[in-house]
Amino acid sequence: MQGSLTQWFGLEGRVALVTGAGRGLGAGYASALAAAGAFVVCVGRRIDSLEKTVAQIHRDGGRATAFPADVTRPALMREIIDRVVKDYGSLDILVNNAGTEIAKGIQEVAEKDYDTIMGTNLKGLYFTAQAAANHMIRRRRGKIINIGSLASQIGIAGSTVYSASKGGVLQFTRALAVELAPYNIQVNAIGPGYFRTEMTEPFFQDPEHRQWIEQRIPMGRVGTAADLAATVVFLAGPGADYITGQIIYVDGGWLAS
Ligand code: NDP
């Protein structure tokens, strides 16, 4: 068998859309995909942070643009995805990353909290995938990468709604993978362990919680966005064309222990 790194991992000529690309792990996915050659459409609610990600990609020699949008609005996401296809010729890769957490015990969770978490992590992800699939089915090609979590697999106290949403992400990934397999569209998920971002900052601010996290990770350190870069590039690339319906946990060994 002959091959080259570009043949397996190169994303030259591909158009990728990353939700929640303005900060945190999403900004890392966007940069990684751009470094592999993709043109990256960065989506999120805050244009100032999206522009920072785009500027960083440009400084690194990559290509990217920003579209402000709230993923909880399916009609708007569909409009944006249609526009991306019209303006840039295709949508080859979707990284469904936008997510949120409001950590509370079940007695404290209000309906509003439930709707915010589910609306972003599951409904937003679902309808963004639906809009992307609409184009990918026609082209008989595409990669959808959903962002799960350790909470796709294990129960985390104080995170019941988040865990329900991320368990849903995993099952959605599997069902969609089966449904879209005949169209040569691969649907997979990444399950990050603990990474320090705006979303997890409250956990790290609490010394007890922080110590629990750090002691629980067999590798002895919290992850960084760079630890996720190769996984997203791999799943988005031609080398993963026969992988679908899977979740790759990037967790420093947490789930193995
Ligand atoms: P951050 O809070 O740092 O970033 C969340 C991103 O999502 C931001 O860019 C935010 O942008 C965007 N976002 C949130 N709500 C919406 C919305 N309604 N519409 C559009 N964009 C939205 O979180 P992380 O980077 O930590 O998390 C990213 C993903 O990774 C999430 O799905 C999270 O569940 C998952 N994850 C994170 C882990 C971690 O340890 N950090 C562990 C496991 C999974 P803006 O506010 O501008 O809209």
UniProtKB/TrEMBL annotation:
Pfam families: adh_short_C2. It is an enzyme of class 1 (oxidoreductase). The keyword Nucleotidyltransferase does not apply. GO terms for molecular function: glucose 1-dehydrogenase [NAD(P)+] activity; quinone binding. It comes from the Bacteria. The keyword Metal-binding does not apply. Keywords: Oxidoreductase. Its EC number is 1.1.1.47. GO terms for biological process: bile acid metabolic process; fatty acid biosynthetic process. Belongs to the short-chain dehydrogenases/reductases (SDR) family. This is Glucose 1-dehydrogenase. The lineage of its organism: Bacteria, Bacillati, Bacillota, Clostridia, Eubacteriales.
